[in-house]
Amino acid sequence: MPRQTSSKAGKLEPLTAPMEDVGTIDFEIIELFFFAYRDFVSDPDAILEKSGFGRAHHRVVHFVNRNPGMTVADLLETLKITKQSLARVLKQLIDSGYIRQVAGPEDRRQRKLYPTKSGRELALALAEPQSRRIERAFEGASPEAREGVKAFLRGMRNRQKAN
């Protein structure tokens, strides 16, 4: 019995011309973001790989170092990930001596997170090449340009819903 194909199957010819700008889609900015992100995370990725860690570990180490004493619930809200996703990463960082978890003083069920000395050193090692990359990108730029970039990046974030 012959195999049936959809009516679209015969129209799957390759398109050889690059996609042109369509309406309000800014492909150049999209590509610049893609390449900037790829390069921005490349140095920390190489450092993390030596320990068998990845980008999820990087995010946890970063935010715990920036907010020592934050709760697991706060971290889940910041990262917008599930408990299950965080549990594995957090366990590895605790077992490796980068993060310390302490029961809350009022509510023993609450878990507060603190960097260890090794965790602080790792956070700095990951941030330094990223900071150098940012400073290179801002060479010769005015303070106003820097503030404009910050405003732009804040504008790219999802809006927080008011309660």
Q: Your description of this structure?
A:
The protein has a domain at 27-135: Winged helix-like DNA-binding domain superfamily/Winged helix DNA-binding domain (Arc Repressor Mutant, subunit A, Orthogonal Bundle). It has six helices and three strands. It has helices at 27-49, 55-66, 72-79, 83-95, 117-137, 143-156, and strands at 70-71, 99-103, 111-115. It has a three-stranded antiparallel sheet. A hairpin with a 7-residue loop joins strand 2 (99-103) and strand 3. The N and C termini lie far apart (60 Å).
Quick overview:
The protein has 163 residues and is mainly alpha-helical. Helix content is 56%, strand content 7%. Strands 1-3-2 form a three-stranded antiparallel β-sheet.
Cα shape: globular
Main sheet summary: 3 strands, antiparallel
What's the helix count?
6
- The CATH architecture of the domain at 27-135 is Orthogonal Bundle
The number of distinct β-strands equals 3
**CATH superfamily of the domain at 27-135, please?**
Winged helix-like DNA-binding domain superfamily/Winged helix DNA-binding domain
Mean pLDDT: 90
Radius of gyration: 22 Å
* Residue share in helix: 55-70%
What portion of residues belong to β-strands? 5-15%
Spatially, the strands of the biggest sheet line up as: 1-3-2
